[in-house]
């Protein structure tokens, strides 16, 4: 019942906004809500898995290879099927697992293993690959392959859920892999292999959205702004060397890399060794996007001039510097910062990307309010030898609409939606159902 109501809403939307030729049904993307956890500054969505349905809050990891969840001692599901070792559905290199029983989810013999990766934990965990039903915003999807691991087997600081929001029970990986949810849904539901992300800046203002299988057709602002200045596009490139904690020989990275050509602060180019911006013959360097880093992490040789030049330009605006608050390196007296449409009037950080487009980071995305008096530049020092020179993190992605198009391998981005007097929580409203109709 619930699922047909959901489809009805989507159908209403399509009729009210963009009439389709009669009789032609276009596959509809999935829309999931995104919440921000104030403690970890990570982002999670909510799905339901199995029979009976278990609500699972899963952290969104654009660089994660698949969906995994906690099948702890108290978890079971009657619709679960472990994937046998050697089956075509078994990705292969993660071994075979067995269990002394009794049989339950995560305890079966001759089962295709899974390397469970939580980038915030210190180890890689063993788990199983299995198939079960998944409910995405009330739509039931069968035969979704995912990983599961029993958190009761790894306790304390060594836990598989380490560093994740307290409420969350796993990770939703959206990397460029066969098992990533968007890849599975694109095959089973005939959707384009892409997803779009709009991360909320705080839950006080409502939820953000994850769109799987195409955002633009559902986002009115993209219809109203049919010009190429709203969505800017840059190639997504493949780092030929894996950046994962476990990988096969010769595997490329499944994370999303883009090419930054230069960085400017208020139109002045930052001075650092340009080779840091390219990927070398070991896969080091370059720029990737990660939702598992709350703040952008920069190679020291980029971070230091960024902080120096930002402080200088801020002082030109009579913004007063105060003692730094870790992990940040430059903080300011909040009362000396002016207000703008993008929240705070601070120097603009401009990433010039491949294709000549500019990702402009304004106050709302560059500054973090650490308390009522102090606002800090929300970038952190990644040290002298990080694998990747620039890891664009969550805070810098908030209230930007980003579309990862895996078919043509490009990233489209809106820049701050605040410039368009909107934010992620206002892009589409689909809870409760009647609100959705208001979109037209
Ligand atoms: C097992 O997971 C369920 C929900 O997925 C949770 O309610 C329960 O507290 C967990 N049990 C333990 C021992 O962590
Ligand atoms: C888990 O569910 C399966 C399938 O319904 C059932 O055969 C099994 O006995 C259950 N295991 C436990 C430990 O409850
Ligand atoms: C796996 O096989 C072993 C040995 O045959 C058996 O003792 C155990 O009960 C089996 N486990 C399950 C979950 O069926
Ligand atoms: C946007 O405009 C172009 C030409 O101006 C047109 O070809 C295209 O169909 C329009 N796209 C949408 C989504 O309306």
UniProtKB/TrEMBL annotation:
Keywords: Secreted, Signal. It comes from the Eukaryota. Residues 1-23 form the signal peptide. It is found in: Secreted, Extracellular space. Residues 43-414 form the Peptidase A1 domain. PANTHER family: ASPARTYL PROTEASE-RELATED, XYLOGLUCANASE-SPECIFIC ENDOGLUCANASE INHIBITOR PROTEIN. One of its GO terms (molecular function) is aspartic-type endopeptidase activity. GO terms for cellular component: extracellular region. This is Peptidase A1 domain-containing protein. Belongs to the peptidase A1 family. Coiled coil: none annotated. Transmembrane segments: none annotated. One of its GO terms (biological process) is proteolysis. It comes from Clitoria ternatea (Butterfly pea).
